[in-house]
Amino acid sequence: MSRFSNRVALATGGGTGIGRAITKAMVAEGYKVVVNGSREEPLKQLAAEHPDAVRYVTTDVTEKGAPAAAMAFVVEQFDRLESWSTARVSVPWHHSSHSTMTPWNRRWR
């Protein structure tokens, strides 16, 4: 049994590319994962490949309220959220003394 058995994660951008690879690795380690993305077909396919471990929700996490809705869906499906993998979102960040978390906070509220 893996040390991650039955842990619960949300994987944004989890249906394709590196997000899909991360999701599959998490499942292999015992996680239950809700994958999130803007295109339903790859998400549905991944959930079909891992029916006991993967659920999906189709949203664009850059839209206001979407991250909160995705998190609520995770809790609805698995009663908790313990980990988060973000392969979908890029947030502009400037390395200077004037940088703030404002872009990040705006994106995830």
Supply the CATH class.
Alpha Beta
* Low-confidence region ranges: 90-101
The helix/strand series, from N terminus to C terminus, equals EHEHEHEH
Envelope shape: globular
Largest sheet: 4 strands, parallel
Trace the largest sheet across and list its strands.
3-2-1-4
Helical content stands at 25-40%
Number of domains: 1
Structure description:
With 109 residues, this protein is an alpha/beta fold. The protein has a single domain, classed as NAD(P)-binding Rossmann-like Domain (Rossmann fold, 3-Layer(aba) Sandwich). The chain is built from 4 helices and 4 strands, in the order E-H-E-H-E-H-E-H. It has a 4-stranded parallel sheet, with helices on both faces.
Task: Provide a short characterization of the protein structure.
The chain is built from 4 helices and 4 strands, in the order E-H-E-H-E-H-E-H. By secondary structure, the protein is an alpha/beta fold. The chain has a single domain (8-87), classed as 3-Layer(aba) Sandwich (Rossmann fold), CATH 3.40.50.
Layout of helices and strands:
Layout: E1 8-12, H1 17-28, E2 32-37, H2 40-49, E3 54-58, H3 66-78, E4 83-86, H4 102-108
Supply database-style keywords.
single chain, 109 residues, alpha/beta, Rossmann fold, 4-stranded parallel beta sheet, 4 helices
